[in-house]
Amino acid sequence: MRSSVGPNAKIGILNIDAHFDLRSYEDITSSGTMFKQILDNDHQASYLPIGIQRYGNTKKLFDTATTLGCSWILEEELVDENSEENENKIQNFINEHDYIILTLCMDVINASEAPGVSAPSSFGLSGKMVRQLIRKITSHTKTISFDICEVNPSLDCDNRTVKLAANLINEVFMCVERR
With contact defined as beta carbons under 8 Å apart, do 32 and 61 qualify? Predict the structure, then answer.
């Protein structure tokens, strides 16, 4: 991504996820280390995870996020009536960057709607809420990338997670087409 936008562009990474994915990667890299790798190696990149589960992350991960200068939005803050505050936080993050990368880790969605993930969330976000977030973020012309992570079809029931992921990808195409 960096080579596509130039060395001085400010890249903002928005990740809709139950987990920080900021684990240490000295011994082994995984899906839980990717954003720490980016932030350690690209000082023009910033990170705002949305939907963080308080009990799905260790204190060390919260401390790592703080040390790296990250803010976050907890799952419970999205479900409560803080919508204007959260919208402002996301909008301000977008405004501070030249380009936005959006990632969706499907384990942020409630396990009843997205069972086909390795770390299902009992208190996850609804698919409708995730769709609303995706629509708002991808409606901005600064959003240049979208990806979906952490879908595990071998754990899925009735292809429920795969179908939801496909519908969310379609939402992105629809938003980009309207820009």
Answer: no
